[in-house]
Amino acid sequence: xxxxxxxxxxxxxxxxxxxxxxxxxNVNLKVPDGKVxxxxxxxxxxxxxxxxxxxxLLSENAIVKNGKxxxxxxxxxxxxxxxxRKLRGYDIATVFQDPMTTFNPVMTIGQQLTDFQHRFKxxxxxxxxxxxxxxxxxxxxxxxAQRLNQFPHEFSxxxxxxxxxxxxxxxxxxxxxxxxxxxxxxxxMEAQILHLLRKMKNDFNGSILIITHHLxxxxxxxxxxxxxxxxxxxxxxTVEDIFYRPSHPYTKALLxxxxxxxxxxxxxxxxxxxxxxxxxxPPPGCVFxxxxxxxxxxxxxxxxxxxDLSDGNHWCICHEVSK
Amino acid sequence: xSLNSTSHARSPLRNNLLVNIKAHLASIWNTVLQxxxxxxxxLGLFLVTTIIFIAFFADFLMPYDPNQINVLNRLxxxxxxxxxxxxxxxxxxxxxxxxxxxxxxxxxxxxxGLAMVGGIVLGLISGYGPKWLDSxxxxxxxxxSSLPMIMFAMAVITVLGPGTYTLIIVIVxxxxxxxxxxxxxxxxxxxxxxxxxxxxxxxxxxxxxxFNHLLPNVVGSLVILASMDMPVxxxxxxxxxxxxxxxxxxxxxxxTILNDGYSFIRxxxxxxxxGGGPLILATLGFTFLGESLRDALDPKLKKRGSK
Amino acid sequence: MTAFLEVRNLDVSFVLPRSISxxxxxxxxxxxxxxxxxxxTLGKGETLGLVGESGSGKTTLARTITGLIPPQSGTISLxxxxxxxxxxxxxxxxxxxxxxxxxxxxxxxxPRMRIGSLITEPFIINDISIGNRWEKAEELLDMVGLPTExxxxxxxxxxxxxxxxxxxxxALALLPKIVIADEPTAGLDVSVQGEILNLMTRLQExxxxxxxxxxxxxxxxxxxxxxxxxxxxGQIVEQGPTDDIFERPSHPYTKALLxxxxxxDPAxxxxxxxxxxxxxxxFLRPTGCDFHTRxxxxxxxxxxxxxxxxxxxxxxxxxxxxxxxxxxx
Lengths: 323, 307, 329
Fold this sequence. Notes:
The complex is a heterotrimer of chains A (about 325), B (about 300) and C (about 325). By secondary structure, chain A is an alpha/beta fold. Chain A has helices at about 45-55, 80-85, 110-115, 125-140, 145, 155-170, 185-205, 215-220, 240-245, 250-255, 295-300, 320; strands spanning about 5-15, 20-30, 35-40, 60-70, 75, 90-95, 175-180, 205-210, 225-230, 230-240, 305-310, 315. In chain A, the strands form two sheets. An eight-stranded mixed sheet of chain A has the order 6-7-8-3-9-10-12-11, sandwiched between helices. A four-stranded antiparallel sheet of chain A has the order 2-1-4-5, covered by helices on one side. The model of chain A has no long low-confidence stretch (mean pLDDT about 85). Chain C has eleven helices and twelve strands. In chain C, α4 (about 115-125) packs across α5 (about 135-145). At the B-C interface, α2, α8 and α9 of B face α3, α4 and α5 of C. Chain A: It is a peripheral membrane protein.
């Protein structure tokens, strides 16, 4: 199977006044063609750095220490400006958390989405508008023809997120990257957007990468899941592997903490004790050692090995599991 | 309770106050350091400190009495006795420039200080007070700013007569609307913020909300605005004095020196330089300092500007 | 359940700006009804969850109960003492007994004050002598599980979870009887959200508090509340014991809300949608039942007649013409 996106051994540091922050360390990730991959992790796990790296929009103080992000066998990180411009929004489309910031507030939606299509020289103005209307109907925006003449502020948050998805799909991208697409929305709207993405998955023949902290969202949508903690991938597998056969203690703890997972009502919720380590000086051993309930002397001293749990499809890094 | 000294030293409020003062001094010192690292800011800081130093110690620095007339030695060129020569009445120009510096600083600092106090009070009342009072105050601010400034100044001077106090009154009343409007805008946006609501939910009185919570959050930007206003006010004072509407002639001011120089420009060009030079240096100094201060206090603005 | 806090028939409407012509014609200023006839009861030691989509009026209700928004009509009584009217003075007493935790933990702390001053401020404001202010601050920080050196920090130096703890300390400083928490878990990671909720539960037991938790996080509500009130467009549509409602939602909106929550279980993926569209604007309040525009069970009666409150056999309050009979209703 071909991969739409392949990340190999990616390490990214940030230069700050108080030292170098090692935000991502040796991240490996594959997004197979036509599949939905979810990246799950809490704040500080490196999700946003990874997201910016994929679209090559890292902040100025970021340093790529090593690694590659391969899209169609070309490294995004060393790509020419010209090729990048063609890549972003064309081959790789993005949907952000805050649908408010996606659109220019002083242009009508119709104008903006027509401009988005400027690379399709073969379409004339009328055809471009027609294409937008088709997309809007697909994502469930009522009266699309009238809506084209409205400004972004005239839409609700949910509607704007639908339009952002429509705009992304207008390009027929090979990869759709969605960063917390439902976090800013109500449950009812979240359910509708998830429903929409699920429907898209069948019609649209590209791959989707979803970055979120919400376990419910990945369970609803994804084929594969990558669990990140403190800048490292700690476990990777199919959605069933992660939810039914979690191996890494962090994955287990994360699943146990989610109040939606707990079957029985409880007055006191389970938590993960301790804090994420300081990424300026990450510990020599396992990054999760200071919060892990199964920690042994080995965990704090040597880096944990990669443990293959099913033919390279499901793996995690942990001393305890390797025993 | 024990009376030993350790418990006394740990007196929390005093402790807190000391920590506060220390922190404030440290943050002011940091700002100064940051300004001096920027070449433009360092130049501004140097010019402004020099000018303020001269204004303070003008009495000791002056070689002659600035109003001592010596008709025999009028319009003299610079010599070792008279560094900047003498004017049409034979008065020492250098001494007159020094005392003029004091006048300029007095007028500028006093009037901007008063305008800031007035702006803060009126702005807070307008922003936090009842709506009818806000409408009334905004109407007054708008009418004030719509008056042509020179016309207004001349009208006030005609009524009160020229002089330092009239000058201050004019500058204060012209500056207040701008300051007040800025404080009002900030108060309006802060008044519905969550932390003000949180204070209200704790039963905090309006006075407490205004003084402890709104005031500290609005003065910062006013200080920047006021420092940027210094050159404008210095120019205004010099301009009105030049026209004979500010400092009364026997007294020295950069404006009156310029006026004397202007009348005798064919006889001695030095006098124009004596009056104009310090004016240019002061204006530049305060502008540089103001801009550097703004960058130091609001780094976001600088980033946006440089991109 | 004996009512400790009782909110009766609360109406809140916001006055809209008037046009010049309406001022000249001396028309009454138009109002936007944000809360309509809201009644609530809360027993001592209970936790009530207030749930609904954004725009349902839950935050407005929370702020009205603490007197931050004056009600047009209705009464609030606490332990038998009734507060009514819309004068700020009347709420003075109430605000000492009911304290509020705000939604954004950092933005609700005055940015130029230190944590030590912020958490002891309630005493200063209400003229309560506490002796050594610093010791009191340390004691409060200790209570919410923060190191005492935090007293010297500024709000922007805290993480979301730490600021949330400061919010708890400030809310509990005066030992109130009721704490209203507006989205206490918003923006927190799952592992931290449990810590805050557990802290709140522990303090509830220690200090004999009653809570109102305003949230849209249903998973949290299921574990932490005993009573539940579901709001839609400024009205309470269903109220009753949390367990009963989760087991057998009676109002179609409640059911839709519960079904919308994504399950963290890949085997339970859904391919249908329980609810379509969004909460209507308050400017265009539907006729009849407010929910009929999105309700899959709506009939002609729902479009024409506004349903009244009714009490079901198991003591639940409900505002619906055709309540769901069973879970699969």
